[in-house]
Structure formats: C-alpha cells, structure tokens
Amino acid sequence: MQVSSTFDSGNIEVLAADDPSDVRLRIRPDPPTDTPDGVKRFAQWFHFRIDGVRDVALTLRLVDMERTAYLDGWPGYRAAVSTDRISWTRADTAFDGHTLTITVTPDADVLWVAYFAPYDLTRVADLVGWAAQQPGVASRPVGTTLDGRQVDRLVIGDPDRDVPVVWVIARQHPGESMASWWMEGFLHRLLDTHDALSATLRDKATLHVVPHINPDGSFRGHLRTNASGANLNREWAEPTLERSPEVWHTRAAMDASGVDLCLDVHGDEALPYTFIAGAEGIPGYTAHQADLLERFLAAYVRANPDFQTTHGYPKDPPGGANLSMCTAAVAKRFDCLSMTLEMPFKDNADRPDAVHGWSPARCLRMGATALHPMVAVVDRLRT
Ligand SMILES: [Zn+2]
C-alpha cells in the first residue's frame, strides 16, 4: 500500500501507512506555515491516492483536525472517493473534534480521496480550448501568476458594443473545486448555439469569464491562497504585482471594460446549501443595487431549486462590508450588481444525495441555470 499526493492539487502528509486499518495522515497547510503552535491555518483541502488497495478495508485517520480552518466543516461531512477520477461518491466519514476518520473498501486497486471532486488544470485548459473554438469567443488572458501561469479570460461578444458588461470569476479560493464544475456548466450552456436563452444573454451583454483565477494555488494543493500565501479574496482593496498579481490584473481588466454585473463563484465548508452573498454593507449601497439583487435571487430560485435564499451568511450592516473582498470592492468601484455564489462541500440539506453528496453534476446544473437570473436582470443593469 502506498499513499501519494505529488500531482496537480495533491495535498496530504503521510504519518503512517503500514496498517490499512490505521492509516495516519495530516493535511498540509497553505503558506505561510510558520504560524505559532495552536494558531489555525488555512488547511482543509486534501487530495491523495492510495495504491494496492483492492478489497482492502481501509481506515484513514486525518489527525490534528482541530487546527484546520473551518471546524464547522467536518460534522456531517463525507469524503469524496473515486477509483477512476470520473465518478466520485462519498465514503463513511466520522469526526470527533480531533480526527476525521474515513472508512472505505475499494473495489479497484487505486483509490483517490479528496475534500471535493477535484478539477485539475488540464481540465481547465480543455474547457478554455473548447470555449475558444466557439464562434464569438476570444481568449484574452488578463495576465500572469507568480509561478508564470496565465490567468485565462474568455471574452464573449464584441467588447466595443455599448451593452452591459458581465464578469464571472471562479476559484479565487483554490480548494473550492465546485466553482470549476459550476463554470463548466455555465460555459457549456452560454456557448450552446442552439440555446435561445444563451443567445438572448449574448445579444444583450458582453461577458468576461475568468474560469480559474488562482491556478498556482490549486496546483499546489492550497485551500485559500496563491503561491505567495495571499488569500486573493482579501486582496481587492490594494492588490500588488508582487503579492497578488491575479487580482491586480483582473481589476485592471475590469477598469478597462467596466462592470455592470459581477458573479464570484465559491464553495462554503460549513453550510449545506447553495446561496448568494451580496454587497449590502458597502458605503453608498443603492436602491438600484438592492433591486437588482432581489430580482437575481428570485430568478435563480425559480430556475434551479438547488439554489435558495433561506440559509446563508448574515447580511453586513450598512458600512460593514469588507472592501478587500471581490464582491464588495467591485460593487463599490463600479456601482453595480456584485455577488458571491457559495455552493456546499457537504450536500444540499434540502435535497440530500446519499451516494454523491453535493456533486459535480449538481454544480454543472447550477452553472447552466445561472443564465436565467442573468437574463432576468440584464435589461435593468444600466437603468
Ligand atoms: Zn471561497
């Protein structure tokens, strides 16, 4: 039996892997790792493979979990497992406050285990390549990361037309791979030339889509940060080329295009629901912004009941927004509709799936159905 995580988005430290009934593992935190003992770190994402395990009853113990970033993420959570990296199901998982114990008996000789079904950079490249083959789509990367990767951006529609501009961003937090599955569903429908809803949105708006804003972080197996250890969704007030070039370049591209609607796609560790957080707490939040948000939320609920508005984050009080976060910073800078979409790591508690939990398939459909709320508000974005 052998445990390995040296691959795209791999993350685990092996403490003991001699006894299949007591494999001891630990999540490797994001940089900086030199935080004092007892201080919580950005650790939550894990992704590894085990070889030589056909019909072996495995008990995998992830230890020191009290030092992970979101303790509320573990009760009710079940680990994602796959023997082919295509079909991901959930394994029996228990949490005692310190150790996350995963029990599984694979029916194949290699097992992959992850916090959520991964979405690696090869698949991102496949998606971008496919999209760039479609009519009316231009590939215009916004810039380069610290590790030298491109931050892809797809421009859909003629950017010189005087129509509303929609920005959609995913993977600021690299451990939130559900955002990529959402993005795949969104782009496949948006670029479907037989879909009249897509055609309507593309007639009425230009779209700038950043499928993966933090490729360095996801390749390195990080939860929240880029190569320098910066949490990109806390960099929007003052991004720098040295620390957060992904945000610096994206914001510069937004300044060039303008923004009328921004949707930033994430995953939430604790809440078993899909929901949106708005920009209510920014200084000068307008009735127009509030009206657009209300219409967007109502249309998304109608389009896909996996989306809901009962559960979510508490709304920021007036003036209480964190302007270092994308949603608030963009809402303030461009006086526009700006939102954070959160999908669960666990499941949708209103419609649980015993086999898959919250799954890539559900994310794909959340992405595809996001066209409905966009069309519902597009005519009002500039009024
Ligand atoms: Zn996030």
Task: Write up this protein.
α2 crosses α8. This protein starts with a strand and ends in a 5-residue tail after the last helix. The chain has two domains: 2-114, Sandwich (Immunoglobulin-like); 121-378, 3-Layer(aba) Sandwich (Aminopeptidase), CATH 3.40.630. The protein is α+β, with helices and mostly antiparallel strands. The protein has helices at residues 121-133, 178-190, 196-204, 215-219, 245-257, 287-303, 326-334, 360-369, 371-378; strands at 2-4, 13-16, 23-26, 47-51, 58-62, 80-82, 89-90, 92-95, 100-104, 110-114, 137-139, 143-144, 150-151, 154-156, 165-170, 206-210, 261-268, 275-277, 337-344. β12 (143-144) and β13 form a beta hairpin. Helices cover 25% and strands 21% of the residues. 51% of the residues are buried. The protein has a seven-stranded mixed β-sheet with strand order 11-14-16-15-17-19-18, with helices on both faces. The site of zinc ion (ZN) has 3 residues, from loops.
Essential attributes:
about 375 residues; alpha+beta; Aminopeptidase; 2 domains; seven-stranded mixed sheet; 19 strands; about 25% helix; globular
